[in-house]
Write a structure and sequence with these properties.
single chain, 178 residues, Rossmann fold, 6 strands, 37% helix, 14% strand, elongated, SAM-dependent_MTases_sf, Diverse_substrate_MTase, Methyltransferase
Length: 178
């Protein structure tokens, strides 16, 4: 980030703004999904236990909505031209039970199969599949395990097979500085 902030200091005019937007991948909205809290916890447990070694710094930074992103005054050699007091951070629904993201249009109703396909496109899952080619696309695939657990938890509360739906959401943050 040091080079980014140096470049930004050169091109952003006095009084200008650097705005950094981050959005998480799709997660289960516990407030709008039957058995949502249990499903969200199960999905997070599976993904964290199976994928932790396949996350890279960029995955973690965006998943955490850039909360640990190095800023011009926190890097080893601070970059001048950015006033710390002008820094603003706004988060939408991050780590809450609310569904504020609806206003941003980041919520979506999905089947467990669609959720499986969606998380299957993430870089950590792709790296997991590269490391486990014999399990990729099978019942042992990490994304398939998530799907099956979602289906099981929906069935526990009376949802019939073939009628399983969940509400997904992406959380976001914007950190404009100017």
């Amino acid at each position: 980030m040091t080079q980014f902030w140096r470049s930004a200091a050169r091109v952003v005019k006095a009084g200008g703004t650097v705005a950094l937007w981050a959005r998480t991948g799709m997660s289960v909205d516990p407030a709008k999904t039957l058995n949502g809290a249990a499903i969200k916890a199960a999905v997070e447990e599976i993904l964290n236990s199976e994928l932790h070694q396949y996350y890279k710094q960029g995955n973690t930074l965006t998943r955490d909505l850039y909360v640990d992103l190095p800023l011009p005054w926190t890097i080893k050699t601070p970059v001048t031209g950015f006033d710390k007091s002008g820094f603003i951070r706004k988060e939408w629904s991050h780590k809450t039970e609310s569904s504020e993201t609806e206003a941003l249009g980041t919520g979506k109703t999905l089947t467990p199969e669609e959720f499986e396909k969606l998380i299957g496109t993430s870089s950590p899952v792709a790296r997991w599949r590269e490391a486990n080619p014999d399990k990729a696309g099978t019942e042992e695939d990490v994304a398939r395990k998530v799907r099956r657990r979602i289906e099981s938890l929906l069935h526990e509360v009376g949802v019939e097979p073939g009628e399983e739906l969940l509400r997904g959401r992406s959380d976001g943050a914007c950190a404009p500085h100017g």
